[in-house]
Amino acid sequence: GQPEPRTDRFDPLAVRALAVLGLVLATALTGPALYGRLLSAFDLTSKSRLAEARLDAWITPPAYTGRPPLMLSDGANPIGKTASKADGHKVPFFEVPEGSVAVIRASGLGNMPLTVAFPLSDPNQQKSLAADEKSRSDSLQEIRYEVKEPATLVVSAGGNEIASWEFGVIPDNPPEIALTKKIEQTLRGALKLTYEVKDDYGVAGAELKLEKVPPKPTDPAMAWAAPKPLSGPRPPLERPPQIPLRLPAANTKKGEATSFLELSQHPWAGMRVRMTLVAKDAAGKTGKTETMEVILPERQFKKPLARAVVEQRRKLIDDPRYRDEVRTALAALTLAPEGFIDDSRVYLGLRSIFYRLANDHSRAGMKATVEQLWHIALRIEDGNLSEAEQRLRDAQDKLAKAIEEGAS
Question: Rounded CA gap, 408 and 403, in Å?
Answer without folding.
Answer: 7
